Amino acid sequence: MNFLKKIECQRRVYTSKYQTHSHAYGQLILPLQGSMNIKTSSFDYEVDDRHLFYIPPDCVHTFYSNNINEFLVIDIPLEVFNGLGINKYGKELYQILDDRWKAIRYLILEEINYKAYGGSLVNLIKYMTSVLFQNNIPTSIQYINDNYSQQLTVENLAAMEHFNVSYYCQWFFNQTGMTPNEYIQNLRLEKAKILLQETELSLLEISQIVGYSHQSSLSRLFQKKEALSPGYFRKMRR
Predict the structure, then answer these.
(1) Higher pLDDT residue, 198 or 19?
(2) Residue 45 near residue 98, CB atoms below 8 Å
(3) Model-level pTM?
(4) In terms of Cα–Cα distance, which of 151, 185, 187, 183 is closest to 168?
(5) 11, 59, 151, 200: which is deepest, by most CB within 10 A?
């Protein structure tokens, strides 16, 4: 298990300066205070006190923070994944910071604080990686992730989990911290942001790509979530 000793566990603070890079190792980011924004080729993520984020090897990402912050950052070399028999490390992961992850974070911090880089940390890292990469995304949530631009109904999503609508909405909130509609809106919003920044597509075209028939629907979503118009967002980010 000597390969596990190559893992770096550190407390880190991020600034408001936009920085872009990639690295040859995987990186797990667990919030301690404040929040930060991370943009990849797929989405813009806000890593706050309710979420954790995993950046896979060679993933180009931009990051910054506009508030007081501190994060527990764990750098995981490829040989660690290989040594543990993990081969699904190539995709970014944005997960709820649930009680299990809070316990893992606490125990790793204790190891760091006391510089106890022994068997306990080795076992923690093994457990952490198994939790991170286990395939536990519920069917309906994965379906939303793959089909957010389609017309989705809570009734159909609830049926995928064999729940009634009322129970499903409560279950969904416990899983994600938001309602199904909020979750879908956030996915559409993040995709629209990327298209606004990286393409010359019209607002109507972008609206239709992310799942809205009318440009006005996307405009209302931007006003609600960002307090500005899509056009002004595009102008600001260029």
Answers:
(1) 19
(2) no
(3) 0.58
(4) 183
(5) 59
